[in-house]
Every structure is written in structure tokens, then in C-alpha cells.
From TrEMBL:
Organism from which the protein derives: Phytopseudomonas flavescens
Designated gene of the protein: oprF
Superkingdom of the organism of origin: Bacteria
Major place of residence: membrane
Protein name per the record: OprF
Keyword Membrane included in the entry's annotation: yes
Length: 298
């Protein structure tokens, strides 16, 4: 018998470092395009914000990030004419990353609060505001350490009630993730296949089937009415190809012994020819024998 062995996998563990995992740190330099609200008295409604951020992964997916940036290319129209407006933005945001840690794309959504300090275009001095920040974007990790980011953020000024926008890109490094157990799948040793049970060959059985094949007096031609019985025997032999048969011919006691012997052999051969030539039984499986008067039928 053939046994089929189904084994369960045995997992052995080893320790490996995975960037982006819980406890990892990200540092990033970024450049944002800043779009101001129309209520601001700026000569241009947009400028640039350049800065850097540092983040800490609380879990494999949640990062807390602190960033600082300074405004450039903002100009205001005041009583003294056009002048360069300086300012900065400090914010603290939580980012939730989608997908699995590792090389590849990880979209994210973010939310948090910021403190903006920016020069006043008209009166001099500085305006300070508290901002509620919401954003979305994606990071692409070229490796588990190096990534590039693109995103957009809405900045709601809680103090002034207006909304500003910024869109930007950044490049960063991710390192120092906590170690995690990495499963190594080990194939189980195959179970021995049981020895096949010894095959006991059964001794062939001899079955005697009497066919009532009719012949005319002193003839060896098979009569049409006997073909049905011969076909039944042929069907059996074809269904069980491991079987063989011997066709025995007989005569009555009329006539000499030698003549009846020859006649019985011719009759047995005639039935054999029908089995082989008409019903397709292999010739090597059909023997014939004549018994003449030695086993008379009448």
C-alpha cells in the first residue's frame, strides 16, 4: 500500500532587525509649497517652507513626528512698501501608515497641531497662531531605511478662522527599529513509508462452463443458433483478460474411434475460431481439445 504523509510545519525563530517597526526613528528633510489665505496681506499668495522633522514609531503603523520649518519667499505690501516676510512653523503630528513595513509604498494620513510665528505685513512685529493640521500622502521605501515622501496638508488657523494649504516632498532615513522574531519555516523530516503488504497470488481457479453448441450430423460447422452462447463466453473472457479457456469437443458413439476423434477436434477448433476471429479473444488464451468417443455426449 502507498502511504501519504502530511506533516505540519515546525517554525524556528531567530532575531532580526526591521526598520519601520515599533521603536524605529525617522529623520527627514522636507520642502513645502505654502499657499496663504487671501486675508493675509501678502504680495504673493504663496511661498516656501524648508525644514526637517524627526519621528518615533509607537507601533508598526503609528508614528509621532515633530517638525520645524522656516518660511522663504513671502513678501508683504505694507506702508513702507514691499518687504520680505520671515516666519517659522513648528508642529507635532501623528501619522498612521497603511500597508506592511518593509520596502515599497506606504500611504498615510496625519493629524496634529502647530504653532506658526510669521511677520505682520502691515504693522510690523509678528503674528502667532495655533493651527490644526490634517494631511495625507505616501512614502516610498527604496529599502527598509531610505524613503521619499510626498503629501498635502490643510492648516486651519484656530485664532483667525482661515484655512491655508501646503504641499511638499521629503527624503528621509528610518532606523533603529526594535528586534522582532522572524519565523523560519523548516520542512519536517518525512515519515517512513510503510512497507507494502506482501502480495499473495491467488491460485488460479478452474471453472467448467458447458456450451450447448449444436452441429449437424457428421459436420464441424457451428450452427447459427449457437453463436449466442459462444458470444457470452467471449464477453466474459474480454472482461477478464487474465483468464484463458480450453474448448473441448465431443461426439456420440456412432462410428469408429479414430473418425470420432478427428471429428471432435474439428468441432473444438471451429468453436475456437469463432471466439478468436469473430469476437476478438486472443488466440493465445483459447486452446482446443477433442475427446471423440472417450467422453461421448450420447
Amino acid at each position: 500500500t502507498l502511504g501519504v504523509v502530511i506533516g505540519s510545519l515546525v517554525a524556528a525563530t531567530s532575531m532580526g532587525v526591521l526598520a519601520q517597526g515599533q521603536g524605529a526613528v525617522e529623520v527627514e528633510g522636507f520642502a513645502n509649497r505654502y499657499f496663504t489665505d487671501v486675508q493675509r496681506d501678502f504680495a504673493h499668495d504663496e511661498g516656501n517652507l524648508f525644514g526637517a522633522s524627526v519621528g518615533y514609531y509607537l507601533t508598526d503603523d503609528v508614528e509621532l513626528a515633530l517638525s520645524y520649518g522656516e518660511y522663504h519667499d513671502l513678501r508683504g505690501e505694507g506702508a513702507a512698501g514691499s518687504k520680505n516676510i520671515k516666519g517659522n512653523l513648528t508642529d507635532l503630528k501623528a501619522l498612521y501608515h497603511f500597508g506592511q513595513p518593509g520596502a515599497g509604498l506606504r500611504p498615510y494620513v496625519s493629524g496634529g497641531f502647530g504653532h506658526q510665528s510669521i511677520g505682520d505685513a502691515n504693522k510690523g512685529g509678528r503674528d502667532t497662531s495655533t493651527l490644526a493640521i490634517a494631511g495625507a500622502g505616501a512614502k516610498y521605501y527604496f529599502t527598509e531605511v531610505l524613503y521619499a515622501r510626498a503629501g498635502v496638508e490643510a492648516l486651519y488657523n484656530i485664532d483667525k478662522g482661515d484655512t491655508e494649504w501646503q504641499a511638499g516632498v521629503g527624503v528621509g532615513l528610518n532606523f533603529g527599529g526594535s528586534t522582532r522574531q522572524v519565523a523560519q519555516v523548516t520542512e519536517p523530516a518525512p515519515e517512513p513509508i510503510p512497507e507494502p503488504a506482501p502480495v499473495v497470488e491467488e491460485a488460479p481457479q478452474v471453472v467448467r462452463v458447458e456450451l450447448d453448441v449444436k452441429f449437424d450430423f457428421d459436420k464441424a460447422a457451428v450452427k447459427e443458433e449457437s453463436y449466442g452462447d459462444i458470444k457470452n463466453l467471449a464477453d466474459f473472457l474480454n472482461q477478464y483478460p487474465q483468464t484463458s479457456t480450453t474448448v473441448e469437443g465431443h461426439t456420440d458413439s456412432v462410428g469408429t474411434d479414430a473418425y470420432n476423434q478427428k471429428l471432435s477436434e474439428r468441432r473444438a477448433n471451429a468453436v475456437r475460431d469463432v471466439l478468436v476471429n469473430q469476437y476478438g479473444v486472443g488466440a493465445n488464451r483459447v486452446n482446443s481439445a477433442g475427446y471423440g468417443e472417450s467422453r461421448p455426449v450420447a
